[in-house]
């Protein structure tokens, strides 16, 4: 079975390959094609993968290429993990937004819109190529903003593109751990929303909802990351546990202030950190796997550091430093390839799951997965406060898609202006000007 990874020179690719090495079942991946526009990054990551595979019999063969059509042709699965503009672009997204006093995070607020505007045209081109060169392939989208990009690709690939994110899984795992659930894999997580904008409303074990027990116990609520991040009182007010990214909405002013006061933005930190790693890989004698593991450990430990500092949430738990999105991706791939039925929280077309959104809107919900793909499970309506946020952000996503399709600068301004974390037409206009000045990928806006 052939797996193609787009963005194959990306830093997190070894997580995926490492997970593949532990899969010894029939119908497993035998060939991994890495595609990237940067041959030097491809070479660096290929060295890491070679060291990972050194002692593993029958490890999947790895083939790097800079030819996109070659990479896609005949693929059974395509993992899309591209970053249009690179980490330099992410750092620019943050810098331009913060100069206007608004959030520049890569998936939330102004930064997410800027990233989406330059990513959607590239993702659409990839989707069209997949439809032509590998029409039977399943596309698993890692590319952020994951919900927005998945929806853009679904207009050309239908239900054969599925978006993934490890945030809901990690949240469910932490809740289950705090509640003492012996086997978290047997718990059903009632999670509903959009990517990076969802809530856990229940956690059922053997048909019993254990979440009310957590919400009623201040000690338990304050014992895990989201409890410390949001505070027990606010979680009890919501009657749910929000995805960590909702901290940007519920504590927006505090977060923006912390980001503006930080010595370096997250994107700039990762840009510099990964530049050092790839520079080290230019030395033939460098231990590739050791260097990668050291860099990854630092990356994971500093994740959302400004938010945790603002909330006084402390350091990340050791259990949350081991990654997770690659496990979701491989569980999804196995379920489809082998018809191993399972339930996963995924980004898929709504199909009536949330009545307030149309059927084509991509939502993040629990899905039953089998050989025919991912099927969203019917969900109870969201409460009013959550419905308002979901509808507002989905409206912004639709304006981003419209701007990317039409090239309309006015529509891009509308997307920024309508976002709850921008809330100013004047700021929106300046953001479009600022982003257009630093991103060649936005030259299509007229």
Task: Describe the model.
The protein has 446 residues and is α/β, with parallel strands linked by helices. Helix content is 50%, strand content 15%. The chain contains 20 helices and 13 strands. The protein has helices at 13-21, 39-53, 68-72, 86-99, 109-133, 146-157, 167-178, 211-215, 218-221, 225-230, 232-238, 247-250, 252-261, 266-280, 288-301, 305-311, 325-338, 384-406, 409-418, 425-438, and strands at residues 2-6, 31-35, 61-65, 77-80, 138-141, 161-163, 188-194, 197-205, 208-209, 241-242, 342-349, 362-370, 373-376. Strands 3-2-1-4-5-6 form a six-stranded parallel beta sheet, with helices on both faces. Strands 7, 8, 9 and 10 form a four-stranded antiparallel beta sheet that branches. A three-stranded antiparallel beta sheet has the order 11-12-13. The longest helix is centred in the first third of the chain and has 25 residues, at 109-133. The model has no long low-confidence stretch (mean pLDDT 93).
Secondary structure: elements and pairs:
Elements: E1 2-6, H1 13-21, E2 31-35, H2 39-53, E3 61-65, H3 68-72, E4 77-80, H4 86-99, H5 109-133, E5 138-141, H6 146-157, E6 161-163, H7 167-178, E7 188-194, E8 197-205, E9 208-209, H8 211-215, H9 218-221, H10 225-230, H11 232-238, E10 241-242, H12 247-250, H13 252-261, H14 266-280, H15 288-301, H16 305-311, H17 325-338, E11 342-349, E12 362-370, E13 373-376, H18 384-406, H19 409-418, H20 425-438
Parallel strand pairs: 1-2, 1-4, 2-3, 4-5, 5-6
Antiparallel strand pairs: 7-8, 8-9, 8-10, 11-12, 12-13
Helix pairs in contact: 1-2, 1-17, 4-5, 4-14, 4-20, 5-6, 5-18, 13-16, 14-15, 18-19, 19-20
């Amino acid at each position: 079975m052939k797996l193609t990874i787009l963005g194959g020179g990306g830093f997190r690719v070894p997580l995926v390959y490492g997970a593949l090495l532990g899969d010894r079942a029939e119908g497993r991946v035998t060939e991994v094609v890495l595609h990237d526009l940067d041959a030097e990054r491809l070479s660096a990551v290929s060295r890491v993968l070679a060291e990972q595979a050194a002692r593993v019999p029958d490890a999947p063969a790895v083939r790097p290429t800079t030819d996109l059509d070659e990479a896609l042709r005949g693929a059974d699965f395509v993992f899309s993990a591209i970053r249009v503009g690179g980490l330099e672009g992410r750092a620019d997204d943050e810098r331009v937004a913060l100069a206007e006093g608004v959030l520049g995070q890569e998936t939330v607020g102004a930064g997410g819109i800027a990233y989406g505007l330059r990513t959607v045209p590239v993702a659409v081109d990839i989707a069209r190529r997949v439809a032509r060169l590998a029409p039977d392939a399943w596309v698993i989208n890692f590319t952020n903003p994951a919900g927005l990009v998945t929806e853009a690709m679904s207009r050309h690939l239908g239900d054969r593109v599925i978006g993934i994110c490890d945030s809901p899984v990690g949240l469910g795992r932490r809740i289950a751990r705090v509640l003492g659930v012996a086997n978290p894999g047997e718990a059903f997580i009632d999670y509903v929303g959009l990517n990076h904008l969802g809530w856990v409303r229940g956690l059922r074990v053997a048909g019993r909802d254990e979440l009310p027990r957590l919400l009623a116990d201040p000690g338990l609520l304050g014992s895990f990351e989201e409890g410390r991040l949001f505070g027990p009182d606010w979680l009890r007010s919501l009657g749910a546990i929000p995805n960590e990214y909702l901290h940007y909405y519920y504590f927006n002013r505090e977060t923006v202030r912390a980001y503006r006061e930080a010595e370096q933005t997250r994107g700039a930190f990762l840009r510099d950190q990964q530049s050092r790693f790839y520079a080290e890989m230019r030395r033939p004698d460098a231990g590739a796997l050791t260097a990668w593991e050291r860099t990854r450990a630092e990356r994971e430990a500093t994740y959302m550091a400004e938010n945790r500092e603002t909330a006084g949430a402390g350091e990340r738990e050791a259990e949350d430093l081991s990654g997770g999105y690659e496990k979701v991706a491989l569980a999804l791939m196995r379920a489809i390839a082998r018809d191993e039925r399972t339930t996963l929280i995924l980004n898929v077309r709504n199909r009536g799951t949330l009545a307030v959104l149309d059927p084509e809107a991509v939502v993040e919900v629990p899905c039953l997965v089998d050989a025919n793909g991912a099927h969203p499970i019917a969900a109870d309506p969201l409460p009013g406060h959550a419905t308002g946020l979901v509808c507002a952000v989905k409206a912004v996503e639709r304006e981003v898609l419209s701007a990317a399709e039409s090239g309309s600068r006015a529509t891009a301004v509308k997307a920024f202006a309508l976002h709850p974390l921008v809330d100013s037409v004047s700021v929106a206009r300046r953001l479009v000007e600022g982003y257009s000045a630093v991103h060649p990928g936005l030259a299509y806006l007229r």
